[in-house]
Write a structure and sequence with these properties.
Layout lengths: L14 H11 L3 E2 L11 H12 L12 H15 L9 E4 L1 H13 L5 E6 L5 H7 L3 E6 L9 H7 L4 E7 L11 H11 L5 E5 L19 H4 L2 E6 H5 L7 E4 L2 H14 L5 H10 L4 H4 L1 H15 L6 E2 L7 E5 L8 H12 L1 E2 L1 E2 L12 E5 L4 H13 L2
Parallel strand pairs: 1-11, 3-4, 3-5, 5-6, 6-7
Antiparallel strand pairs: 2-8, 7-8, 9-10, 10-13, 12-13
Helix pairs in contact: 2-11, 3-11, 4-10, 13-15
Protein name: Methionine aminotransferase
InterPro entries: Aminotransferase_I/II_large (IPR004839), Kynurenine-oxoglutarate_AT (IPR051326), PyrdxlP-dep_Trfase (IPR015424), PyrdxlP-dep_Trfase_major (IPR015421), PyrdxlP-dep_Trfase_small (IPR015422)
GO molecular function: transaminase activity
Length: 382
């Protein structure tokens, strides 16, 4: 056919697919895509087997298993002091990406403006454009990727429908502080702007700092969808299961799209996750688990020429290469795969054309054996 009109004419293959294919082709140590290379807890796998044998094999309710939603309601209230009604304000989704996509689909109309903070995870912009929205980027500034509050305030206008934030932040590993959350609340107060808060790494935070969920802030919570990921928390990214919480009035609109998008999510996993969540240590100890990996990786590369500011959260670490090369990050990322057999992600793919910093993103959610191999290579790069 020669008359196809693309709704996303400027969108190609994602960087994760491109880098992943090159990594396979060159047999590279792969620290690019964000998934662990170690198995989940056997106890969780056993619970899935148990669910299959107990015949949890037919459709779950559209909103998700009631028992799991009740457990998540309790969990959210215990952690953040905010109660979400399990019947009307919590939905199990096919991964956080589906939750993000469905939220945008339900609320963004042609001509609506959606503010994103760049660097921004790469699924946000295409979804906005698909439904006729206009992306309004606000660049994070400096080596610490701080919010330009005046720029953000100026970006909010009569046509602003939504603001998307990500905490902990991928790809930078930044955590929003109390002052940041108060500024978000101050800027959105009195507006009709919906806040979409991507909190999939909520339990992967380091150095004793808390995760400040949007749900902790009354005005923000009243206008917000908050997405979370079981895949990130329990090393099961291939299961593609997450959840979203929001006030009843907002969730009602979400369900109108969700029910015709996926309707319901893999039921045996919902049974298993509900049982697994009963032991709070399974998620409360996750930060220390990944901090050990972060620290192990950074200790292993301390003699390299890469510059480091330790990640505050997620399982990603930015490495600066100002002392190594003047190449742009895409050029260097491709060269490292071909010449050194090491795969990373150039963060310019999450940024706009004004981006000019030299960073590559590495995933340290790997076994020590893989991290050792990667460190050996990074030390050799001059």
């Amino acid at each position: 056919m020669d008359n196809i009109i693309s709704k996303l004419p400027n969108v190609g293959t994602t960087i994760f697919t491109t880098i992943g294919q090159l990594a396979l082709q060159h047999n590279a140590v792969n620290l690019s895509q964000g998934f662990p290379n170690f198995p989940p807890d056997p106890a969780l796998l056993h619970l899935v087997d148990e669910a299959l044998q107990l015949d949890y094999n037919q459709y779950a309710p559209m909103q998700g298993s009631k028992a799991l939603r009740e457990t998540l309601s309790e969990k959210t209230e215990q952690l953040y002091g905010k109660y979400y009604h399990p019947d009307t304000e919590i939905t199990i989704t096919s991964g956080a990406t589906q939750a993000i996509f469905t939220t945008i689909a339900a609320f963004v109309n042609p001509g609506d403006e959606v503010i994103i903070l760049r660097p921004a995870y790469d699924c946000y912009e295409p979804a906005i454009e698909l439904f006729g929205g206009k992306v309004v980027p606000v660049d994070l500034v400096g080596k610490d990727f701080e919010v330009d509050w005046e720029a953000l305030k100026s970006a909010v206008g009569a046509n602003t429908r939504m603001l998307i934030i990500n905490n902990p932040h991928n790809p930078t590993g930044k955590l929003w502080a109390e002052a940041d959350m108060q500024k978000f609340q101050e800027i959105l107060s009195g507006t009709n702007v919906i806040l979409l808060s991507d909190e999939v790494y909520e339990h992967i935070v380091f150095d004793g700092k808390p995760h400040l969920s949007v749900s902790k802030y009354l005005d923000l919570a009243s206008r917000s969808f908050i997405t979370s990921s079981f895949g990130k928390t329990f090393h099961i990214t291939g299961w593609k299961i997450g959840y979203v919480v929001a006030p009843k009035e907002l969730m009602k609109e979400f369900h109108k799209v969700h029910q015709y998008n996926v309707f319901s999510v893999f039921r045996p996993a919902q049974y298993a996750l509900n049982q697994y969540l009963k032991n709070h240590d399974h998620y409360l100890e996750l930060g220390s688990f990944y901090q050990q990996k972060r620290d192990y990786f950074l200790e292993a590369i301390k003699t390299s020429k890469f510059t480091v500011k330790p990640s505050g959260g997620t399982y990603f670490q930015l490495l600066g290469y100002d002392q190594i090369s003047e190449e742009n990050d895409m050029e260097l990322a491709l060269r490292l795969i071909k010449e050194y057999q090491l795969a990373s992600i150039p963060i310019s793919v999450f940024c706009g054309p004004s981006y000019n910093q030299r960073y590559l993103r590495f995933c340290f959610g790997k076994t020590e054996e893989v991290l050792d191999k990667a460190a050996e290579i990074l030390i050799r790069i001059q």
